[in-house]
Amino acid sequence: EPEVTQTPSHQVTQMGQEVILRCVPISNHLYFYWYRQILGQKVEFLVSFYNNEISEKSEIFDDQFSVERPDGSNFTLKIRSTKLEDSAMYFCASSPSGSSYEQYFGPGTRLTVT
Amino acid sequence: QKEVEQNSGPLSVPEGAIASLNCTYSDRGSQSFFWYRQYSGKSPELIMFIYSNGDKEDGRFTAQLNKASQYVSLLIRDSQPSDSATYLCAVTYYGNNRLAFGKGNQVVVIP
Question: pLDDT grade, residue A98 (50/70/90)?
Answer without folding.
Answer: low
